Amino acid sequence: MLACMLASAAALGGCRTAPAATSPDTASTATAAQESSMTAVATPITAEEIGRRVLKLIDSIRSARDLAPEHIAQQTGLEVERNASDPHLYGFGGSLSEDWMYNLVSTPQKQGEAPTSLRFSFDDQTDGGNGDPAEICGLDFQDYRAALTAAGFDFKPMQGRRGIDAWYFTRGDVGVTAYTHGNADPAKGKACISKLIISAYA
After folding, report:
1. Which one of 5, 43, 188, 199 has the lowest number of neighbouring Cβ atoms within 10 Å?
2. What is the pTM of this model?
């Protein structure tokens, strides 16, 4: 799964494949040419836990230098895998359940250039995309918003042709675009985060 994400890091969509098995006694050390779920923890991770780790990472970002794989690993406690053919393509991923995976990958604008953004996503592995969103809603939109605003981010909706498409958080030179599963409106009830685009402009 992560190999697929790294190979298509410039695309906004995720990859779909069968989730990799994870157990407390087995840690994946595959290269970017192999399908793998890479974490530095010994037990399966939950959507809430990975969400909190990503929020900690976001709070630590002040510039594009903080998007480096070493900084990501330090802040999240997760091992970061690099693409063998391009060191600017890197990330981590893992299985949450039979139906869902999480992934965080760099998204450089051009091959060979250092990235100015990261994409974090919860990826539905079911046929037809029918995974239960409750499995990725350990932290819902309001939890992410509360954490980001507490970290000093301003917040505004992004209007599309059919209403709000996403929500944009900014703090200095850092921006976070948040998307909800099924484009759910948090004002109308619980909404689960499906994707975050984390950008640094300096």
Report:
1. 188
2. 0.81
